Amino acid sequence: MATLKYTKDYPRPQFVREAWQSLNGEWDFRFDDANVGEREKWQEELHGDLKIQVPFTYETKASGIAESSFHPYVWYQRNLQPPADLNDKRVMLNFQAVDYTAKVWVNGCYAGQHHGGYTAFSFDITDYLNKETNGTNKLVIKVEDSQSCTQPRGKQRWVEENFECFYVQTTGIWQSVWVEYVSPSYLKSVKITPDFDNRSVRFEYQTHQAGGSLRLETRISGHQKTLKQVSLHMDRPWLQLDVDLVHEANGPWKSESWSPQAPNLYDVEFILYKDDVEVDHVYSYFGLRKISIEQGKVLLNNTPLYQRLILDQGYWPESHLTPPSEEAIIEDIEAILAMGYNGVRKHMKIEDARFLYWCDVKGLLVWSEMAATFEFNDEAVETFMNEWTQVVRQQYNHPSIITWVPFNESWGIPQVFTHPQQQKFTEAVYHLTKALDPYRPVIVNDGWEHTVSDIITLHDYEEQGQVLFERYADSSRLLDGSFSFNTWKYAMAKGYEYRGQPVIVSEFGGIAFTSDQGWGYGNQVASEEAFIERFRNITQAIKDTPYICGYCYTQITDVQQEVNGLLTEDRKPKIPFEVIKGINLA
């Protein structure tokens, strides 16, 4: 069941305003390989020789261009015509994600820039707009990208051809562009922290204040009735409020928690008044749930949680990292649930906010994983830290996210096994993440060579179930560094000890049918029967190992040259869903 103010295709479902306008669709477009655009004043008039369908990047068929070669500088232009009755409203230009550096001009005036390919950002463009009624305004965007391995790029290749598990790059606008209209005083953000044990919730408000007396009203509702309504005066831009969720006013009512079995959500409205006149109204929601770790187990709402995850890289054949539609997002989530998985590891991608919204609604657990850099130097450290901070803050409110994963398989920290400086970097990222969010576990280096980590995760693509079971039989030997658990990597980095954390096999499987068009892990299989037998044996081996408290199978779909999905790229099942579900739930 969707939340109170669900609006199809709304780019930011956790912070909804009614006055908004999508800027997706056709834009003028131009390549600028020689980087002459700014000198030649393209920001004033682009004279684009191509058309592109935003938010699809030029590399994709969905964009209408389908040019896979790398171009470091690209330009966009379109007109914006705000409503005639703006009055004193401010116009906020919002981008959900642009890879990598975006520079924005409005009517030839520079409005700002943003670095980072995976996070949302906004500019107040009011002062650059034409003031005439029904005035037409020119938006121009220049995007700068590179093949540098010091910028977070995840699975995007940095050479001209795909290789191994790296795919066509993503350059430019790849998530929604839109405007919203706000009063001079408005709500900038709300950080929502549920307290499961005390049945309460904390709101941390940030406002933009333009004088006058401000009052903020918060209404919490469930089952289509108001449960709580509280008010406070905003005498400074930052305030916080704790609200008890126990409700007795309209008769006995029990607060409801969020879980995969019952993904109950509370709707919440934030209404800002200036001098007792409503000036902003934002719709949101939250889930009352708790993630904790005790005695080597991950607990959800104080109950042990066995995690049956599937790895999801979030690619589509005609639109790559950009979901082709909201229906496509829902289809993937429902397929994952239909196969008996209760969670997803979003691999090397910061996902569209609408994906996380539907995970919240449908009860799918999420590990949120940062896109990796592939070099270690001062520039890489700075770019990573800046963008990761934005990611954690922007995704914090989603109840479906239960784990943060800043690094994977030592990517970007290639000598972390022995290198003190790289080890200190992982410790810094761990503690920074905990400073922003002390309530979720952090897996610092998913797969192997862990330094400080709340969960120890292991990647192992062994084909034989019995071999896998025997390999993991002696947990103490496996985790104390006595041998390389997957024949070439160790669980812990040098100088770090296993301290009783939960253990999860967070990559395994990767089975592919016989094909000369791509690859999978290990030997390819020739028949459905051989696929099912191998899938059952390796899955059961992990489930039969008592101290392992979850797994993540690779992967949901094929991705370009990687053909090891349970579904094809165009989402056709290779194995019946009920067979996979039966093995997962056995």
Automatic annotation (TrEMBL):
Pfam families: Glyco_hydro_2, Glyco_hydro_2_C, Glyco_hydro_2_N. Residues 21-145 form the Glycosyl hydrolases family 2 sugar binding domain. Transmembrane segments: none annotated. GO terms for biological process: carbohydrate metabolic process. Residues 186-289 form the Glycoside hydrolase family 2 immunoglobulin-like beta-sandwich domain. Keywords: Glycosidase, Hydrolase. One of its GO terms (molecular function) is hydrolase activity, hydrolyzing O-glycosyl compounds. Residues 325-577 form the Glycoside hydrolase family 2 catalytic domain. Belongs to the glycosyl hydrolase 2 family. This is Glycoside hydrolase family 2. It comes from Paenibacillus monticola.
